[in-house]
Amino acid sequence: MITLHALQYSRATRVLWLLADLGQPCERVDYRRTEAFRAPEDLSRVHPLGKSPVVEDDGETIAESATILRYLVEKYGDTTHRPPHGTPAFWRHEALLDYVEGSFAPVVLRAILPAFDGKPVPEQAQAELDDHLAYIAGERGEGPLLFGEAPMLADIQFSYLIAMLDRFGLLEGHPAVADYWKQLQRQPGYIAATEAAGPMVPPSE
Asked: How many Å apart are CA 126 and CA 108, to the nearest integer?
């Protein structure tokens, strides 16, 4: 059975979501964040960078959310969380899956880090975030999700960062992305993951 090292309020919820969709169990090892909202030292014994999520399976240790999601659909022979291989939709999906952490995450961090300290988002960071949220709204098209009704790996991958933006009220002025977040929260896998491990992001005070 796969072992999932899951940090509180983290990207690990993405992995639990996919496992729930696939009907696959895991042995979950939970880690609580420190008062400074950092990962505890214990996680550095699992991965040198103290990362989460990390999965262990058949003697292999695998990190990075997108890699883990791809690994799981390959391991379990799933064909429902990506468009048909080799089609234009497949490659659009793969680009979006990598875009989340490769391009979107740095933009989100520049916006939410000041918000963590109760400070306004810098003007340049807000403008950059607005551009990316408009891009995501365009990629969503008619919705409700990125590729219609069924959640894909890219939808699961987007969930954490969009949840963080919603947590700090940074989806205001972007109704299509705010609605996308509502649709993500209605997915059975998301509901199962958060019921099992708690909220994806820290609750508002």
From this structure: 9
